[in-house]
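SUBJECT: protein chain
CONTENTS: sequence, structure tokens:
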Amino acid sequence: MGKSVLIMGGSGQAGRGTAVLLRRWYPALPLTIAGRDLDRARRVADELGNATALSFDLRRGDLGLSEGNGYAAVVAAVRDSHLNGLRFAQERGVPYLSISNGLVDIAPEVVAGAQRAAAAPILVASHYLAGLVVLAAMESAREFERVDTVRVAAVLDERDGGGPAAIADLERLMDVTSAGLVRRDGDFIWVAGAAAQVEVPSVDGVVLPGQTIATLDVPSLALATGAPNVRFDFAVGESASRRRGAVPSTEVRIELEGSAAAGAPLSRSQWLVHPEGQRPLTALGIALGVERLLGLRGQPVAPGLYTPEALVDPAYAVERMAELGTLRL
């Protein structure tokens, strides 16, 4: 733990939440909070303890940073738009994690990782909640001999989009395409127009207008479970908790259909609800990835390109979600 984890965007909501969790789990782990507002980054670092603050520049190959004692890992809790954070990690042979490149704009990151696959472990975690939905679904899938269908429906409260960077990411991803990616009868296909418009249920039964989206969760769930039918529906609107006068919550419904070991039909449905919104769960998804990449849980990860389900144990992720106050209904 002599080297520090560099968290780019560490003073933002996801980055700060990640730092808080890592500090709670590993008090001796040094952290570097890199922010574009140095005063804000310093406040976060002072609150954490055993942390330093600095400003950084994503447009520069060296990120505008001095080497110091080097870094143990690089976390992009903000969009690494020039991929300089990725290259920075590759050149130093340290793990890298990102969360802001959606399915429709992930190609440059994947190509950069593939070109130098032996340089460093790269965790592509631009899934919903940084991979937690996939991990929760995989944990439920343990009951099944065969999974035929996975359906996910998520409600993001319109007042819970995160900080400016997160809102910009969401707007960019929604603007790039109005089509959604689904797996249907084993084929990955695009659905657009009226076919992509859906109704998304909230946990209290209220139905919100939404759409089927293109998200990394779809191929991850399809390939991890073998399910020939997978979709992810998404709505932005008022969450059930806010309708009750409380703060915005995040809500995700996961439905699985298939067969049990004896061949009997089996179906499972669960809600994942966090009363404080998406930020705590996104931070948890990132922290679980960092923990695994550093070998703080399990062996250090070899160089290569990874997704969350390839590294993080689903049962352990679900335990951590419960510790954080996530409700499974």
User: Anything to note?
Assistant: The mean pLDDT is 94.
